[in-house]
Every structure is written in structure tokens, then in C-alpha cells.
Design brief:
mainly alpha, 2% strand, binds fe (ii) ion
Length: 315
């Protein structure tokens, strides 16, 4: 869709028609300011989550129990850096600079997913993150492949393929531990006990409290509600937990014949809000490590800029 018009009413109508017809909005198309701002906020938060999410798992790279596990984990963490890059690039098409977004992250003015403020206490956490956290990310992100904004939708296609590898490596890791010694099984169970509830919180607040949901659905940035996606995740995880031989830590979790879905217990939203407010177990550490990494990388950015300048002068 390309709109070349001076008439704001006509531009708005063309935008609405394109969204209604499931056409993609592209960077040069006219779009409402609110649509642009919503996308910048969401894509930035998504990009920040990818790169902050590298920290809890990178914590275990040097202590992976075998060369095979280490190679897999390094590949996975590196994928997350790549996801961050695709997403910062998608955000840049909306007219915002990557350095500006990183400054906001470092200053605490933009968020990242609250899940990454929890610590990785044992090796089994790497498995639980892959199975549950990457699993929840897939459920959230597959519908974004059909997002109305072209660059975001296209970035998500490749990201989802890689997330599915992440989910499987976590599942396979947990399966190995669960079927191993009694000690390994207990370690796997403990990790699932700690990651289950925060994973459910990844889908965001309940629908009746979700501030941006209705408008995002109307703009087709978002295709399903938070509660709908959360339910889908629970229904997928229950049979997988059975195969793993692990228990999900929710006594109220049971099949509801009438609904054809699982009922599950109440989520502790006060914990979610506390973590969002910056009071999770690792918030400070995550941001200070990120700032440090950014400072440590200053010479690389300077060298790259100097190199680019030299080449532009030569040509
Ligand atoms: Fe990712
Ligand atoms: Fe991932």
C-alpha cells in the first residue's frame, strides 16, 4: 500500500482499508501516530527482551556439562542476539534510532520481558527456560508473523523458526534430566516449579486489565488476547509435562470437559507487578550488566563508524 496524498482524512481511510483487507503497512506508507508509537514501544520491548534474555542462560555456558551441551547453548544464546538485531532494525524503519532505544533501555525508560529478572540457579533452568520461556514466546510470536506492519511480521518468521529449535533443546534437556538419576530428576522438577508461574505471566495481564490490547487488536498488530494465548500455552504444556515425567506446580490444574480446555489456578499478579516495578530478584543485575556490555563495546562502534567514514571518503 502506498498513499500519496495531502488529505489526512483520505490517508486515514486508506490506512484503515489496508488493515481491514489484511494488507501489509510498509515503512513509507502513511500511518496514524498512535500506530507508529505502539509499534515502536512493542518492537523495542521485544528487542530488549531478546538481548537481556541472553544473560540468564549465558550464565551457564562455562558450566555446561558436556561439549555438546555447550555448543547447543552457545548457538541458542547467539540466536537471541540475532533476534535483537532483526528487531532493532524493524524498529529503525519506524524512524527511531537504535542508540536511542538502547539509551532508553539503560535508563529504565523502556521495558523488557519480566521473565528475565529471575535467576538461573541450576543447569536444569536452561532446560526449563527452553521448554517454557521459549515455548511461551512461540505462542506469543507466531501470530505476529501476520502482524499488519510488514517489517515486524517478516522479522518474526525467521525468529519463530529459531525459537522452535530453542524450545526443543530445552525439552530434550529436561527429558534427559528427568529420566536420569533421582537427583537429576529432582533438579528438573525444581526448575519447572520455579519457572512455571512466571512463564504464565509472560502473556501479560488478564484481558480486562490489559491497557493496549483492544487498540492493538483493531490495528491487527495483535491477533489474540492475552488470556486466549495463555490458555493455549497451558493446554500444550500439560501433555508435554506428562511425557517429561514432571509435575506442573498447580493443584488446580485439571481438564475441563465442558470447555474442552484445562482449568488452572490463580496467577499471583502482585508478584508480576513487583517485578515490573523493578523489584524482581535480578532487575538491577540485568541492567547493570547490559550497561557495562554497552560501555565495553564502545570501541567496536567507534571503529566501525571510522571504517565506514573512510570508505565513504574513498568512494
Ligand atoms: Fe529469541
Ligand atoms: Fe529463544
Amino acid at each position: 500500500m502506498t498513499v500519496i496524498t495531502e488529505d489526512p482524512g483520505a490517508a486515514n481511510a486508506a490506512f484503515d482499508a489496508a488493515v481491514a483487507a489484511d494488507e501489509r503497512i510498509e515503512p513509507r506508507d502513511w500511518m496514524p501516530d498512535g500506530y507508529r508509537a505502539t509499534l515502536i514501544r512493542q518492537i523495542a520491548q521485544h528487542a530488549h527482551s531478546e538481548i537481556i534474555g541472553m544473560q540468564p542462560e549465558a550464565n551457564w555456558i562455562t558450566r555446561a556439562p558436556s561439549l555438546r551441551r555447550k555448543a547447543i547453548l552457545m548457538a541458542k544464546v547467539q540466536d537471541e542476539a540475532g533476534h535483537g538485531l532483526y528487531l532493532y532494525s524493524a524498529a529503525e524503519t519506524l524512524g527511531v534510532g537504535r542508540d536511542e532505544l538502547l539509551d532508553k533501555l539503560h535508563a529504565g525508560r523502556q521495558k523488557y520481558s519480566s521473565i528475565f529478572n529471575y535467576p538461573t540457579l541450576t543447569w536444569a533452568d536452561v532446560g526449563a527456560i527452553g521448554w517454557l520461556v521459549d515455548g511461551a514466546a512461540i505462542i506469543n510470536q507466531v501470530p505476529i508473523c501476520r502482524c499488519s506492519y510488514g517489517p515486524y511480521a517478516r522479522a518474526m518468521v525467521r525468529i519463530c523458526k529459531e525459537e522452535s529449535f530453542h524450545q526443543r533443546q530445552g525439552y530434550e534437556l529436561l527429558h534427559t534430566l528427568s529420566k536420569g538419576t533421582a537427583e537429576q530428576h529432582a533438579m528438573a522438577q525444581d526448575a519447572v516449579d520455579r519457572w512455571w508461574w512466571p512463564s504464565l505471566m509472560m502473556f501479560g495481564p488478564p484481558d480486562d486489565e490489559s491497557a493496549h490490547s483492544a487498540q492493538s487488536m483493531a490495528w491487527k498488530i495483535k491477533r489474540h488476547s492475552n488470556d486466549e494465548l495463555r490458555q493455549r500455552f497451558v493446554d500444550i504444556c500439560v501433555p508435554q509435562a506428562e511425557i517429561l515425567g514432571l509435575t506442573l506446580p498447580d493443584p488446580d490444574l485439571k481438564w475441563n470437559e465442558e470447555r474442552g480446555q484445562h482449568d488452572f489456578g490463580a496467577i499471583d499478579w502482585s508478584e508480576f507487578k513487583e517485578v515490573l516495578r523493578g523489584n524482581g530478584p535480578c532487575n538491577e543485575q540485568r541492567i547493570s550488566q547490559r550497561r557495562q556490555a554497552h560501555e565495553d563495546g564502545a570501541w567496536v562502534r567507534e571503529a566501525a563508524a571510522a571504517y565506514a567514514l573512510k570508505h565513504s571518503e574513498e568512494s
